[in-house]
Amino acid sequence: MKTTKAWYQKWWAWVLIILGALLIIGIINTPGDTTNTQATATKKVAKKSTATKESATATTYKVGETATIDNVQVTVTNVKTATTLNSNDPKTGNQYYTVTVSLKNIGKDKVSYNPFDFEIKAAGNQTSLDEFNMDENNQLDSGDLTAGGSVSGTMTGQAKADGTVELIYNPSYFSDRHLTFKLQ
Q1: Where are the bilayer-spanning segments (predicted)?
Q2: Could you give the count of Cα atoms lying within 13 Å of 81 in the half-sphere of its Cβ?
């Protein structure tokens, strides 16, 4: 006679229980949550209306202007263009852009930064600033900024030589919120 195990004795039941528990913990522990549900609901409504205002008034900043997102002040301080880099030529129709940025944490919490938070956009193509420039000794690395901390560094990438070229800063992979700086 064949006996079947109870549902709680099967391995897949425990996998589902663990995944469900992790999902619930992840939902409960989202950043900025408070124990007061009314305050949380008010914050969410305020964030949603702020995001709507930001997307409705999408601003493009110029070199030298400071913009703020997620308690980080971002300034593009310098842009250099070049037709060769480390004795290498860019792709046909492109040129190299070396961008110097400054980041400052104006919040109370630690903020992470990474050169991959930045992309260069030209002619509908958005690419990473992942070229290594031997002439620049202040490459932007990844790290954390404590409250009041600041960092500056350079990043190099290639994009079309003509037309509008923009630097996009997106501090969160999971969000569409970003800053745009016009480089050319």
Answers
A1: 12-28
A2: 11
Domain range holding 134? Answer: 60-182
Residue 46 in any domain: the answer is: no
In a domain, 152, yes or no: yes
For 18-56, write each residue's pLDDT tens digit: 998 888 887 777 655 444 444 444 455 445 544 444 443
**Tally of structural domains, the chain:** 1
Which helix (H) or strand (E) segment holds residue 12: the answer is helix 11-28
Say how far apart CA 60 and CA 158 lie, in whole Å: 20
DSSP 94-149: EEEEEEEEEEEE-SSS-EEE-GGGEEEEETTEEEE--B--TT-S-B---EEE-TT-
CATH code for the domain in which residue 137 is found: 2.60.40.1240
Nearest alpha-carbon partner for 106 in 153, 146, 66, 142: 146
Tens of pLDDT, residue by residue over 90-139, are: 888 888 888 999 999 999 999 999 888 899 988 888 888 888 877 778 88
